[in-house]
Amino acid sequence: MDSKEVSDFLSHLAVKWNVSPSTQNQALCALVYFYKHVLEQPLVENTINAVRARAHRNLPVVLSVPEVKRVLNELKGLPKLMAQVNYGTALRKNEVRRLRVKDIDFDRNQITVKRGKGRKERPLPEACKNNLIKQLDFVKQLHLKDRREQINGVELPYALERKEPNAS
Predict the structure, then answer these.
(1) Which of 17, 96, 111, 125 is the most buried (most CB within 10 A)?
(2) Number of alpha helices (DSSP H) and beta strands (DSSP E) in the chain
(3) For residue 17, how far is the Cα from the chain centroid?
(4) Domain co-membership, 71 together with 119
(5) Cβ–Cβ contacts within 10 Å for residue 163, how many?
(6) 154 in helix, strand or coil?
(7) Residue 100: which residues within 8 A CB-CB, separation 6 or more?
(8) 10, 7, 4, 36: which is closest to 23 by C-alpha?
């Protein structure tokens, strides 16, 4: 086979078999290897003009606004608040889990995520503002109770817990 027939074969893979770009590329690499190491003849890749396979784009499945409302109405307590913050700010689940009191600025209506994928500042959703305030009051009371009982337990960033054992 010459480069024309190899091109036809790779085009056939893309058009008739509808293979992925990586599969088509793997077939080309296998043919180049075969020609070079088995047949000991060069197969010049830049002379191959095959139809390139297209990458399949998978669109994400997104809930409609009424569906989100129905899901949120089924939740209660802290899971509901976390879902509201997640939906309202488009933060990742772990970013919502790791939010700290100092990350929430009620005066500027803003949430800042420092330990996530990039530094993010997001608007604080009005719908969850009151529930966030209630949660912060609850957490403050819990923290004061833990301090009275000398219980540590604050999550510390990175290696700070090893560096400063008493910081929590």
Answers:
(1) 111
(2) 7, 3
(3) 32
(4) yes
(5) 9
(6) coil
(7) none
(8) 10
pTM of the shown model: 0.58
Chain centroid to CA 151 = 34
Query: What range defines the domain where residue 136 resides?
Result: 65-150
Check residue 101 and give its pLDDT: 87
Which helix (H) or strand (E) is 82 found in, with range?
Answer: helix 77-89
Instruction: Please check whether residue 28 lies inside any domain of the structure.
Output: yes
Tokens describing residue 36 = 């070079």
- Which residue matches tokens 């509808």? 18
Confidence tier at 118 by pLDDT (50, 70, 90): low
Alpha-carbon gap, residue 23 to 10, rounded angstroms: 10
Q: CA-CA distance, 69 to 82, in Å (whole number)?
A: 14
| pLDDT value of residue 141 | 93
The H or E element spanning position 11 is helix 3-15
